[in-house]
């Protein structure tokens, strides 16, 4: 179960950071949907490191080899498998990991979980690098959705104490939704983005790191999709989003803010607009009872600061059970949330495609 | 899939608010675990309405009939099914629902999802009443866990602008953990609880409602349990917790607060205590890489305000597509988060038992 | 997982033979499909015991109470739960079971599996009585399929050395398909049925039992439904059919007979008939590559003889580990295959509805 | 769902016959189990073609590249992915497939299922070649089981009218179990094997093919493993075995033969042997109520004749809807059952490991 997700669309992710490769199998895609590889590359490149000082200098060539499920430029409907080779791996950087727990990392818990047999190099299966196949799979799902007029975008909404504007929940338009993702730094407001970059750079200079928050929006998702209780859109998105390393919180619409609101403030009045039933406000983030309302779907994902920092940290050698001081060197983003922006979009795309397949079946989506 | 959850422990919830009954099937429980019915009743009564002015006056007799899986005071290991009869249902209260969308409710989305065929009386399958079987199932899981020294408690951490103290993440003790659940009003600090009650009462008096937040803690959960990516403890808990009506956010450990922290602040240093590896702080909420660290597991769940309020609201008749003004009368809690405290504990218990069964199998848990 | 089945339609069966009741939750049904309760009763009555000398004299009142998911004569789309109360249970008949293994029964394996905690009265969760909720669920699925022109029938094709005619694989018509199920004894050929009844009566008189085989056919199932590898129609039907107690074999089309054939004999030539692509013969039983061809779907299920016989049998007391001689008295069908005919139809209906939901989604089936 | 199987161990198979490669992801393996690659190669080579006149002359190099989950000679516990490259593909052989249905093949049903978008070259995802990753996965599962004393073997039990001896159900020893798999032709009796080879050669000479049957046995599987209803060992094995192309029947123990038996013949008397509870006979094939008895597990799988034959066959062009005559040339085994012997062992190994993980958890199997 661990690394397999989904009910109507199944996602199986494999790989370790410094093994031969990482990849994904997507089972249940509708057949005959054209996938534009250049568009897919543009999307996955948004996650790629090395683009600026805010991300790790490790060079990745994340362009995948499609092993199956993709033929003549389109999905075949059978399992789509894609492999991303690992290159430029410097395993000596990680030699301590088999015994010394990096604080905030899964070294110790992974050691217990796998009885010491897991591949620890570069974080192994726990590495943030595993978001590459997730992003790839999500990029494919995004294109399937886009052909049905469903558009997904995300932006960096907070870094440290510094916040971007939020999407306007009730009046989000496509241009605004997509602009941050196409910008050099993924914020709605360029000046706020510049401030965030300074916050990140400051942390990096001080051999530290900083947390961040990503907001994701979806336009064009049809109303009436999703299911009650555990089949809700929130459940599906959250169960995927918590699979992204460093995620510690997920909220929809007004989210935790709604805890402080009154019902009269939080309820979204229904109204008619051009003959369609819409809500005037959108505190619900486009989801009621787990089911889409037709309004923009909105959620936010909170990322903890990158645990790998160069400052000396107190820890233990868990094999020998003795205290130790650790400085984590190597190549690490000072703020994982920056590159996570497209990963969050990917999670949304996969969750929503799963829900759409439940509603329409493969025949409904192939037509 | 909608109302079925789980991989190693399967939970199937059924029922509508005003139908013959609601209930649950739990499949995969270890056999031969004694279940104390009085203890179970005490637990489920914490969710029951009608106990004070802060909850709906509807009288429920939520004591279930065990239909299977329970024999001689213990689990049999085969599916445990329990039925809670619906009584005291006043369906005339809900007659408008088939056409007029209550803002903040699933009336409109349910209408679309089920092509108008779903039972809308009292909210049907979307009713908060469906948390009764979830709580019952969780109460059973709690007892299974308690026999292994795993203890779960929760409290109301916020209502409106009014907040309770938080559990101490690194030094939580069992007495503190359980005290709120046993109190008449589930807060750590009695005076803060009194203030919250006034906030709720104020909202009720003004024909309004208010949101709230619940914090849940777990002590004694063994380290090394859980799985990476989509099998993480966070994924499991969140995918259940978002099945509780009105939940709009879930966060673990420091959660969204970590977005503003530095790595040097958020990382929990490992240390040795009585020969055990522990962390000095517990920003991670007891989970790293989806796997338990052995420290207290901590998460918070945000509830929106009860959408049913008596104030006039703007809405539409979705069958006839015309505007309407609605006043929702009937019996509704002015703050759903209060009674949700044991429901959140239930969700935690089920998710953690699922993870424990993955680790130990039924044989490991029957021994 | 044990008693939960399905991916697109989920079936959760619970109950023990002598507990309060047995039942089923069906999750994923399309909404708004009328279910005719009289037709459903006629179908489930075909499984009911006590109709003639060939079945156990125990009186059952298998008419279920619908607890949820059924409103105004139709499915609501939310989980449909139904409860069948246990009456007329004579638990003293089964007092030996907690220690003495009935040969051919699950007493010993159940004891090991559940560490001695399972409810053994009347076979508990292993009882053939658990086919009642399966049949009920299948009867509902049959009606959903019938509205789309899909018709399912079955007959007793063999008892002891005595065989009925087979359905004509390539030219099966609806009248022939359904006739056995409506007859007092479910065979195509009345005289062969009379012979079978004598074979069964002979076994009963000699305090023995006899095995049997059921053939099931499906007309009107659209071509192109199903999936390769583990999602094939054969996989789905078999994984359900082996859940019927006493089933030891499942085969499709020519089945095991095909082991002895040449490709030139077994391959079904494609041809055109009224502009439709059909096959001239139907050795494949309507399934190629796991996917329907549009020809009649045909499979056979082999049942072992009822293990409960009154003849003295050699066995052991598994608690005290000593040899014992056992005579099983009580009420037992001398040939379980007779009453299993509608159960096999039910399994087919559920498996095929699951596959149809994969193809068309709930929206495609609600339209 | 289609090409993903399992609950406690998850198997995801991908690939098309003439695409870049085929492979498998195994999720849920216990960590730290040594996998001997030479032993694994010996096992998978038993499925490899080109070894004698009875199998297709296509040269395959089925030695996989392990992409993840395998480190330092052992499982890591994280998803194990393996890739088998496709070489020596002669796609021109298959050019007709996009329009002309080969009788007995999935060309037509696949066309309908995937709206004409699936990769048809060499049968695509429906190719028998997809049994290579299944065999590989099963070979790994076999080694995990072997470390616990569980041994699996199979043999060709019938070809055309010509049958091998059966395993002795109650007195099967390891040498007998494994001998056929190690022989040049996988039968228990060498002379009967020689006769079978002549039957196959005769079919081949006549441009035809022939069906066959495989029997599989398992020794050392502990009693009390498996679950009732849909979680039975039979359900698990069958749901996998029907995923092997050309399988049309699966039976356990006496299987369909039991339809003709009396209870007094078919029931296996329990007895004590060296203090252990065993059965004197083993008509049940080691499974009662879906749960292992501790006796040898035995089942048989029926394969239809290879549908690809060189004799002229009547068919249709399904794109143009017109009749056609087809001669299938290219490289095809005249009897798929021969090379399927290790594939059946693989299916058994995977199903039994899934059941063992349910019972013991990953911790129980890592210890």
TrEMBL record, chains A, B, C, D:
**Which reaction equation describes what this protein catalyses?**
5-O-(1-carboxyvinyl)-3-phosphoshikimate = chorismate + phosphate
Provide the GO biological process annotations: amino acid biosynthetic process; aromatic amino acid family biosynthetic process; chorismate biosynthetic process
**Which residues make up the binding site for NADP(+)?**
47, 53
Its EC number is: 4.2.3.5
Per its UniProt record, what InterPro entries does this chain match? Chorismate_synth, Chorismate_synth_AroC_sf, Chorismate_synthase_CS
CDD domains in alphabetical order:
Chorismate_synthase
What the record notes about the co-factor is:
Reduced FMN (FMNH(2)).
Region Disordered: list its residue ranges. 42-62
Task: Give this protein's Gene Ontology molecular function annotations.
Answer: chorismate synthase activity; FMN binding
**Keyword Transcription annotated:** no
Its keywords, alphabetically, are: Amino-acid biosynthesis, Aromatic amino acid biosynthesis, FAD, Flavoprotein, FMN, Lyase, NADP
Which Pfam families did the record assign? Chorismate_synt
Q: In which pathway does it act?
A: Metabolic intermediate biosynthesis; chorismate biosynthesis; chorismate from D-erythrose 4-phosphate and phosphoenolpyruvate: step 7/7
Q: Main role?
A: This reaction introduces a second double bond into the aromatic ring system.
Q: Which family does it belong to?
A: Belongs to the chorismate synthase family.
Q: What is this protein called?
A: Chorismate synthase
Q: Which gene holds the coding sequence for this protein?
A: aroC
């Amino acid at each position: 179960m661990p690394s397999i997700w989904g009910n109507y669309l199944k996602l199986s992710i494999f790989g370790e950071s410094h093994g031969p490769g990482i990849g994904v199998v997507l089972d249940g895609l509708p057949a005959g949907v054209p996938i534009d590889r250049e568009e897919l590359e543009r999307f996955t490149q948004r996650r790629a490191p090395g683009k600026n000082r805010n991300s790790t200098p490790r060079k990745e060539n994340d362009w995948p080899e499609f092993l199956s499920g993709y033929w003549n430029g389109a999905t075949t409907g059978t399992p789509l498998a894609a492999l991303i080779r690992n290159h430029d791996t410097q395993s000596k950087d990680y030699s301590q990991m088999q015994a010394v727990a990096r604080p905030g990392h899964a070294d110790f818990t992974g050691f217990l979980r796998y009885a010491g047999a897991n591949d620890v190099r570069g974080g192994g299966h726990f590495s943030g690098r595993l978001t590459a196949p997730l992003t790839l799979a999500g990029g494919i799902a995004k294109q399937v959705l886009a052909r049905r007029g469903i558009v997904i975008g995300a932006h960096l909404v907070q870094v440290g104490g510094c916040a971007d504007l939020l999407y306007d929940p009730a009046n989000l338009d496509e241009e605004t939704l997509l602009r941050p993702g196409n910008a050099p730094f993924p914020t709605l407001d360029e000046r706020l983005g510049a401030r965030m970059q300074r916050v990140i750079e400051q942390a990096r200079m001080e051999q530290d790191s900083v947390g961040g928050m990503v907001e994701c929006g979806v336009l064009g998702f049809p109303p009436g999709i999703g299911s009650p209780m555990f089949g809700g859109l929130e459940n599906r998105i959250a169960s995927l989003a918590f699979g992204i390393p460093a995620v510690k919180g997920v909220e929809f619409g007004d989210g935790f803010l709604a805890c402080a609101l009154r019902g009269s403030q939080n309820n979204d009045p229904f109204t008619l607009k051009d003959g369609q039933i819409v809500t005037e406000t959108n505190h619900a983030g486009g989801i009621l009872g787990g089911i889409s309302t037709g309004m923009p779907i909105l959620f936010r994902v909170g990322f903890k600061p990158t645990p790998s920092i160069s400052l000396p940290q107190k820890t233990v050698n868990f094999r020998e059970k003795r205290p130790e001081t650790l400085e984590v060197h190597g190549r690490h983003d000072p703020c994982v949330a920056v590159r996570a922006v497209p990963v969050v979009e990917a999670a949304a795309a996969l969750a929503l495609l799963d829900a759409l397949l439940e509603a329409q079946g493969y025949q409904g989506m192939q037509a």
